[in-house]
Amino acid sequence: MLAASRPKSRLLELGTGTGLATAWLLDGMDQDSTLTTVDNDVAAVAIAREHLGGDARATFIVADGAICMEQLFADRRRFGLIFADAWPGKYTKLDLALDLLEVGGIYVVDDMLPQPNWPDDHPPKVEQLTNTLLSRPDFHVIPMAWSSGILIATKAH
Q1: Residue 55: strand, helix, or coil
Q2: Which of 63, 69, 74, 57 is nearest to 8 (CA)?
Q3: Residue 138: what pLDDT?
Q4: Are 54 and 80 a contacting pair, CB within 8 Å?
Q5: Which residues pair with 25 in a beta bridge?
Q6: How far is the CA of 91 from the CAs of 14, 50, 151, in angstroms?
Q7: pLDDT at residue 66, rounded to an integer
Q8: Distance of CA 27 to CAs 24, 45, 116, 146, Å?
Q9: What are the structural domains, with CATH classification, of the chain?
Q10: What percent of the chain shows pLDDT beyond 70?
């Protein structure tokens, strides 16, 4: 639904994994939109590429997310939607990820509710991310206690 709300747009996924969210994003996108998806796990991206690589709207990048975001920023790339499902762009380099959003763009993160596999030091990171986003005057933010916990932010200016 969120991908569909951004027609003729560029989308960025940080954390391709094996392509589950990639498939959802591609399904919602119109034919004039593009998706750049980044992950540092060669084997996981190979699985995603095997199943979704035939879609010309998708570009798969195997790289460190932080380095990739720095290059995208240097190339003046901006995105209408960013789904951050990796540490870079979520718990590290947050400001850089948010700078990659165009005004009106949507920033989405998941896994914001406690999970049984979280290490003891993880809950404070989630709280800090949430508080940081809620304190930014240039974003409208809504945390949602749904599924694994979703947070959606829209860049206001």
Answers
A1: coil
A2: 57
A3: 97
A4: no
A5: none
A6: 12, 29, 13
A7: 98
A8: 5, 18, 30, 21
A9: 10-155 (3.40.50.150)
A10: 100
| CB-CB contact of 151 with 141 (8 Å) | yes
Helices (runs of H) and strands (runs of E) counted in the chain: 5, 7
Q: How far is CA 88 from CA 69, 76, 115, in A?
A: 9, 18, 20
How high is the pLDDT of residue 153? Answer: 98
Mean pLDDT of 94-107: 98
Query: To the nearest whole number, what is the mean pLDDT of the chain?
Result: 97
Is the CB of residue 155 less than 8 Å from the CB of residue 104? yes
Tokens for 83, please give them: 């789904």
The residue with tokens 């709207």 is 57
Residue 122: DSSP 8-state? H
Span 4-44, pLDDT tens digits: 999 999 999 999 999 999 999 999 999 999 999 999 999 99
What are the residues facing 37 on neighbouring strands?
13, 60
Q: Is 96 in contact with 65 (CB distance < 8 Å)?
A: no
pTM attached to this predicted model: 0.96
